[in-house]
TrEMBL record:
The lineage of its organism: Bacteria, Pseudomonadati, Bacteroidota, Flavobacteriia, Flavobacteriales. This is SDR family oxidoreductase. Keywords: Oxidoreductase. Pfam families: adh_short_C2 (PF13561). It comes from the Bacteria. The keyword Oxidoreductase applies. The keyword Oxidoreductase applies. Residues 1-35 are annotated as: Disordered. Belongs to the short-chain dehydrogenases/reductases (SDR) family. InterPro entries: NAD(P)-bd_dom_sf (IPR036291), Sc_DH/Rdtase_CS (IPR020904), SDR_fam (IPR002347).
Amino acid sequence: MQKDSKKKIRPEQSQAKPGLEKNLKPKPKSQPALAGDKLSGKVALITGGDSGIGRATALLFAEHGADIAIAYLNETADAKETKKVVEKLGRKCLLIEGDLGNETHCKKVISKTLKKFGSLDILINNAGTHWEADSIEDITTKQLMTTFNANFFSIFWLTKNAMPHLKKGSSIINTTSVTAYRGSDHLIDYAATKGAILSFTRSLSANLAEKGIRVNAVAPGPIWTPLIASTFSKESVAEFGSDVPMKRAGEPREVATCFLFLASEDSSYMTGQVLHPNGGEIVGS
């Protein structure tokens, strides 16, 4: 028998149409949730925070009062530059180098963040990688496992190890992709990981809703990041983003605002949802 989930959560009441807000019990909350810094006093862990979308998100979070831990693979020069700017904004920044496709390292990332800051409020699972392949026959098992370890299993391991330290009001935000919705004929294994992230986000959000921990995602389209220039041919890079309705690639800062919204109280009534900064491509949600 299905359990009836409905229960009274406010006093019974009735009004003549169109109704008066002043007579509602309790009164609706209409004032902005926060003024000024949206993440003041928060600690955010951002994977892939050395460059691209991750860097833009780290800088925006710092502007809004958060201390930042950045987990990255080996792009130390970029990571140090990000840290420099975060600290100029008056916030603390911890750099953690290593392979997130390794479960043991994921555990260390969480423990190092907690050792530095004493708490964790926001987990941004953003790091990812991809390789082009014309055919599934060109995708080796090694490449497949590397892609899933980096893009999906890292998210599972980091989230699992973060859970004992998250509390009501905490936020988990995962980076999926437009390819999770429409696929990609030349990034088959990458698109598959992004589909897994989408399902993981929806499932975990339902699991954690009653604990007051929100889980959402961002699904970028073509965004101008170092991964693009390091993956595609010179000709493809020159044309990158020109096929979307807005006829250009997006900038990392145009995606970072999605993460800020989902991390802050501005999105307090959203969980299990996905935002789509993709230049106007219409995809199923």
